[in-house]
Amino acid sequence: MAAIASTPLHAPPRATASPDSAATVTPKSTAPLEPVPSALEADKTTLPSPAIPAQREAGPTPADTGTPSTAAVRPEPLSDEDIIDMEQLGQILELDGEDGNYDFSWSMITEYFDQAARTFLDMEEAMEVKDLVKLGELGHFLKGSSAQLGVTRVQAICENVQHYGQRRDQEREVDISAEEALTMITNSIDPVKKEYGIAKEWLKEFFREKGIDVDADDD
């Protein structure tokens, strides 16, 4: 029997990968990877946004509804200087002397009250007969007595009445017709009475504080 030559068994050689022949790893997916948000960005995305309260729908304004605004119609209170010229009144008070007695100046005030009341009655009578000349004279008269005591608002309106009686509008510096003059005088009667009433109450309160019994001669 022939002898079988024994040759050493060798393990099969391992394949060595050369740099050029290195196997490339194919990624499982070719889709681009999403960027990983930072911690700050993660907080922004996870925190709920604060709730913003819904704005209340504005209601209609007075101009929309036609209702007059109470702020627009509320008159501003008058100061003493708006009612009485204190410098002029002070000259009247000086006539009483330094004894603290205001009887003389108060007598001038009460005489003015009587004059004004009579003048308003005369104006109404002159209006009925449309006597422009008489109306102008009455306006001139009451203007002078009001100026003497510093009743400036009555003085100003009566000066206008004086010029209207002469068919003249001093504010516009134009001549006016008799009809227009009568209309303007008519529109001046109520305002001058109102201003006189305000001044009368102010003067009575002023002399009451000085110890005068202002209601003794009140009509």
UniProtKB/TrEMBL annotation:
Please list which residues make up the signal peptide: none
Q: Which PROSITE patterns match?
A: HPT
What is the recorded name of this protein? Histidine-phosphotransfer domain HPT domain-containing protein
Q: Write out the ranges of the annotated region (Disordered).
A: 1-75
**What's a single GO MF annotation on this record?**
protein histidine kinase binding
Taxonomic lineage of this organism?
Eukaryota, Fungi, Dikarya, Basidiomycota, Agaricomycotina
SMART domains named among the record's database cross-references: HPT (SM00073)
InterPro entries documented for this protein: AHP1-5/YPD1, HPT_dom_sf, Sig_transdc_His_kin_Hpt_dom
Which residues are reported to carry the modification Phosphohistidine? H140
Q: Which residues form the HPt domain?
A: 101-199
Q: Which domain of life is it from?
A: Eukaryota
Question: Is Phosphoprotein included in the keywords of this UniProt record?
Answer: yes
Output one GO BP term: phosphorelay signal transduction system
**Keywords for the protein's UniProt record, in alphabetical order:** Phosphoprotein
Q: Name one GO cellular component term.
A: cytoplasm
Q: What CDD domains does this protein map onto?
A: HPT (cd00088)
- The residue ranges flagged as biased composition, category Polar residues, are 18-29
Q: Can you name the source organism? A: Cylindrobasidium torrendii FP15055 ss-10
Kindly indicate whether the keyword Methyltransferase belongs to this entry: no
